[in-house]
Design a protein that fits this description.
301 residues; Endonuclease III, domain 1; 5-stranded antiparallel beta sheet; DNA damage; DNA-3-methyladenine glycosylase 2 family protein; Alkylbase_DNA_Glycosylase/TA
């Protein structure tokens, strides 16, 4: 049995672009786009597992949810879809950013209110290729998650903290997760409740709370809080590609580092993550020179 809710955006709204940041690769067991264009998410809420289906009908967004966490998911639907985000606070300072802002009036920064759900896949993405991280997330959920409530076949809800802590070392190894990342996840799930409190904190306090865990640095904290808290200033530092993309887009120069990126984004203080999103949406990226990193097989190490 499902419960439902309808939410109406107050202006232009891009459902696909706003929700896509929650998908961890094309085979994510916790996120799916249906053949009818509906978005499905399987989450572990404070009330238990839940599945939500979100679809647009005319000017309205309609959601149906199943499982013990269904009502929690529906209560948080407006925040999830970006109702708490106010893009009118943003003032473009570069022509490229202005054009990207004009072409994407429906962009909103979403807020899930679930820290661990974004933190664990962000830890898996540390210093590896996207394909490696997506594969690890997929295999771990398929093997150690639980079936999502409702009619979403083959979708999985991520393990609860205790289940994460019981995953044996060889299962991490089979999923291609090295001991450093698995140890960071195990440290995080031991204090899961305190980490979840960060969803109600401002950016500085939330980032500091996450970074108390050894193995969680500014990159992981920002990638998590962008999704869990919808924080417009949570700019990602320590990324392999983002500084070069921002530098090339705004100056035409290659080789920009974190310090240079932060200097370029300084006029957007308070909105640096939104500015970076718009720069990425502009499509202006430096030509690729280096070959892609090969996917490493940790099972042979």
């Amino acid at each position: 049995m499902s419960v439902s809710r309808t939410w109406t955006p107050s202006g232009p709204y891009d459902l696909a672009r706003n929700l896509c940041v929650l998908q961890r690769g094309p085979g994510d067991p916790a996120f799916r786009v249906g053949g009818d264009g509906a978005f499905w998410r399987a989450s572990r809420t404070p009330e238990g597992p839940g599945t939500i289906r979100i679809a647009r009908h005319g000017g309205d967004i309609e959601a149906h949810a199943w499982g013990p966490g269904a009502q929690w998911l529906l209560d948080g639907l407006p925040s999830l879809l970006g109702a708490d985000d106010d893009p009118s606070d943003f003032t473009p300072c570069h022509r490229l950013v202005h054009e990207a802002h004009r072409r994407n009036p429906g962009l909103r920064l979403i807020r899930t209110g679930l820290v661990l759900e974004s933190l664990i896949p962000s830890i898996l993405e540390q210093k590896v290729t996207s394909d490696e991280a997506y594969r690890a997330w997929r295999l771990l959920l398929q093997r150690h998650g639980e079936p999502a409530p409702g009619p979403a076949e083959r979708m999985r809800v991520m393990p609860d903290p205790r289940a994460w802590s019981l995953i044996p070392s060889w299962e991490w190894h089979k999923a291609g997760v090295d001991s450093k990342r698995s140890a960071t996840i195990l440290r995080a799930v031991r204090v899961a409740r305190r980490l979840e409190d960060a969803a109600a904190m401002d950016l500085a306090a939330a980032s500091a709370r996450l970074q108390l865990i050894p193995g969680i640095g500014p990159w992981t904290a920002a990638e998590t809080l962008q999704r869990s808290n919808g924080t417009p200033d949570a700019v990602t530092v320590g990324d392999l590609h983002l500084p070069r993309i921002v530098g090339y887009a705004l100056t035409g120069q290659r080789g920009t580092d974190d310090a240079g990126m932060l200097e370029l984004l300084a006029p957007y203080a308070g909105q640096r993550h939104r500015a970076a999103r718009l720069i990425l949406l502009s499509g202006r990226t430096p030509p690729r020179r280096a070959p892609r990193f090969a996917v490493r097989d940790f099972r042979a190490m």
